[in-house]
């Protein structure tokens, strides 16, 4: 049995950092490299890992304490014999990735007095082969000094490599997924000779770089320390607090840490917070976190009141509606379809040739027409990509139908509506509506819609403005058909007109496209032969 002392490693010139998390308790058995404590400066988050497998005997620091290089933070008892690092049998552990400055090699000045410099990886605190997880600048970008060039992630820390000088990024010599070590050339920048920053004496230059022969004329360009980042390049310390392991997990789960609420002191995000966040998202089809605020007013001052809880469905719907309404610029296009002939056909079919128990409402025809219109106008069957700079066009035509249930609105999905005939669509929609009202809808029956229909035609009304069911980009509202006098060129004729209200995401769909889509729907519905083919 041997006792070891765990000390904070060399912090690369940073005097003091704060202990923001103690990951273990006395008596814990740890594997070598498991995190003991987490430190955070305004530039980086670092884990101090266990130097060996063993048991924690004492923890000598608390959250909020300030520590520096060499601070004694814990004692461990380890199995077997350990060769002591010093005469007093104490083992000092260099654990964290240590940010350190670096020197740049600079090529000859051009005629315009600009220099081409190689950007090299700074001292990574003894860690080699660290993976590039993100290139944060593009070739041709004009960068300010310290603007992020790329993000590296090792087992223990996530680091940003900043631009060493203000200038233009000429090239990267590496790509995402490559592993780099101190001194590797990662790209080239063009900088103005006048703007080259001289290195400050307080920062150490590594001996390996000092021995590198200059290409032509050498300028020592100081790179500032690597900075720890979140997924979305939010600097740690500014808004998101999380250790490298949590950041790695967040990336694997595709979670934006800026949206996660941390439960540890100083809102630090822990793994459990991530799991809770994901669980909540999976269980609620919300498009984003939306705060639903009610009223603080005391209405009992004006008369008697009762207060009742809102169903879970209504609460989820409220969040989704707020998110959609506040994030999507939406417009509604109105039109009317002449369904006189369609209704005559529907009634005739209903009386004669339908399988037992099948009732065909206008909705089945509207579903069929919508699937055809979506095939004709692909933008309506799309979603914006994560950064709203791409459009994801779907080759499946799954149509959600809004169903009014005693507990609130549910939206089951008719899968592959484009491949189904009128009778199958009618059967599917009435079965799904029944299951929704009987609370028997499985979760997967409500996912994967690429377009939604909300039909209030059985109730009444002349028009309404449905809210786009994000991340879809359009929703069709259907109101009650009624007879109207329509001019046929010679006289007014009574025609059965079906009001349609098409709401759409104006970031994706233009007004003219919406008008064409709605017109096309009306044409399909006005001649039932289009829908039976
Ligand atoms: N115009 C005139 N009559 C219509 C019609 C229309 N647009 N749509 C339906 N009808 C008739 C039907 O033919 C039926 O008449 P009969 O009983 O004489 O046959 C009657 O109205 C009732 O229809 P329905 O509502 O039971 O059936 P449906 O297939 O039209 O609709 C469903 C099914 C599930 C969409 C509907 O029941 C429902 O829940 N609608 C509410 C949706 C909602 O709440 N939307 C608001 C969401 S917020 O945007």
List its traits:
533 residues, alpha+beta, seven-stranded mixed sheet, five-stranded antiparallel sheet, 9 helices, 30 strands, binds oxidized coenzyme A
Task: Provide an overview of this structure.
The chain has helices at 207-210, 244-253, 271-283, 312-327, 340-352, 362-376, 422-437, 511-526, 529-532; strands at 2-7, 17-22, 29-30, 35-40, 45-49, 54-59, 66-67, 72-78, 105-109, 114-120, 130-135, 142-143, 148-153, 158-162, 167-172, 179-180, 185-192, 241-242, 268-269, 330-338, 382-384, 391-393, 399-401, 403-405, 408-410, 413-414, 451-455, 474-478, 482-487, 492-505. It is an alpha+beta fold. The strands form 8 sheets. Strands 20, 23, 26, 27, 28, 29 and 30 form a 7-stranded mixed beta sheet that branches. A 5-stranded antiparallel beta sheet has the order 9-10-17-15-12, with no helix packed on it. A 4-stranded antiparallel beta sheet has the order 1-8-6-3, with no helix packed on it. β13 (148-153) and β14 (158-162) form a beta hairpin. α6 (362-376) crosses α7 (422-437) and α6 crosses α8. The longest helix has 16 residues, at 312-327. The chain is elongated and about 95 Å long. Mean pLDDT is 81; it is low at 81-112 and 198-239. The site of oxidized coenzyme A has 20 residues, from α6, β24, α7 and β27.
């Amino acid at each position: 049995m041997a006792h070891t002392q765990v000390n904070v490693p060399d912090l690369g010139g940073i005097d003091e950092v704060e202990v923001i998390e103690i990951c273990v308790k006395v008596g814990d058995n740890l594997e070598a490299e498991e995190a003991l404590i987490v430190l955070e400066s305004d530039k980086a988050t670092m884990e101090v890992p266990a130097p060996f497998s063993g048991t924690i005997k004492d923890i000598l620091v608390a959250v909020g304490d300030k520590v520096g290089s060499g601070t004694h933070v814990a004692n461990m008892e380890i199995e077997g014999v350990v060769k002591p690092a010093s005469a007093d049998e104490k083992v000092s552990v260099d654990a964290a990735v240590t940010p350190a400055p670096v020197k740049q090699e600079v090529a000859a000045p051009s005629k315009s007095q600009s220099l081409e410099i190689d950007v090299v990886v700074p001292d990574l605190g003894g860690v080699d082969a660290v993976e590039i997880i993100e290139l944060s600048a593009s070739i041709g970008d004009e960068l300010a000094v310290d603007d992020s060039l790329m993000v590296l992630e090792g087992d223990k820390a996530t680091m940003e490599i900043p631009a060493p000088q203000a200038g233009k990024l000429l090239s990267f010599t590496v790509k995402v997924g490559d592993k780099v070590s101190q001194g590797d050339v990662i790209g080239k920048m063009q900088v103005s000779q006048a703007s080259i920053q001289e290195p400050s004496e307080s920062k150490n230059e590594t001996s390996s770089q000092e021995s590198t022969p200059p290409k032509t004329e050498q300028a020592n360009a100081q790179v500032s320390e690597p900075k720890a980042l979140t997924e979305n390049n939010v600097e740690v310390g500014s808004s998101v607090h999380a250790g490298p392991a949590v950041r790695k997990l967040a990336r694997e789960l595709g979670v934006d840490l800026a949206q996660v609420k941390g439960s540890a002191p100083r809102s630090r995000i822990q793994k459990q917070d991530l799991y809770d966040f994901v669980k909540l998202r999976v269980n609620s089809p919300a498009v984003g976190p939306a705060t639903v605020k009610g009223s603080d007013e005391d209405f009992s001052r004006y008369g008697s009141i009762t207060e009742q809880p809102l169903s879970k469905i209504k609460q989820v719907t409220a969040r989704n509606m707020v998110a959609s309404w506040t994030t999507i610029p939406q417009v509604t296009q109105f039109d009317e379809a002449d369904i006189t002939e369609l209704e005559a056909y529907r009634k005739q079919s209903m009386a004669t040739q339908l399988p037992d128990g099948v009732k065909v409402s206008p909705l089945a025809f509207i579903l069929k027409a919508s699937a055809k219109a979506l095939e004709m106008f692909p933008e309506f069957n799309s979603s914006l990509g994560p950064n709203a700079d791409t459009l994801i066009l779907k080759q499946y035509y799954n149509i959600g139908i809004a169903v009014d249930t005693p507990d609130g609105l549910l939206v089951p999905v008719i899968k592959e509506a484009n491949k189904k005939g009128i009778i199958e669509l009618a059967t599917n929609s009435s079965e799904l509506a029944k299951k929704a009202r009987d609370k028997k809808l499985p979760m997967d029956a409500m996912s994967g819609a690429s377009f939604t229909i909300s039909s209030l035609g059985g109730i009444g009304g002349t028009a309404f403005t449905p809210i786009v069911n994000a991340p879809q980009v359009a929703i069709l509202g259907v109101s009650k058909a009624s007879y109207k006098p329509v001019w046929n060129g010679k006289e007014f004729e009574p025609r059965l007109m079906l009001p349609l209200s098409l709401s759409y995401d104006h970031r994706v769909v233009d007004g003219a496209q919406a008008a064409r889509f709605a017109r096309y729907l009306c044409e399909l519905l006005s001649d039932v032969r289009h829908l039976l083919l």
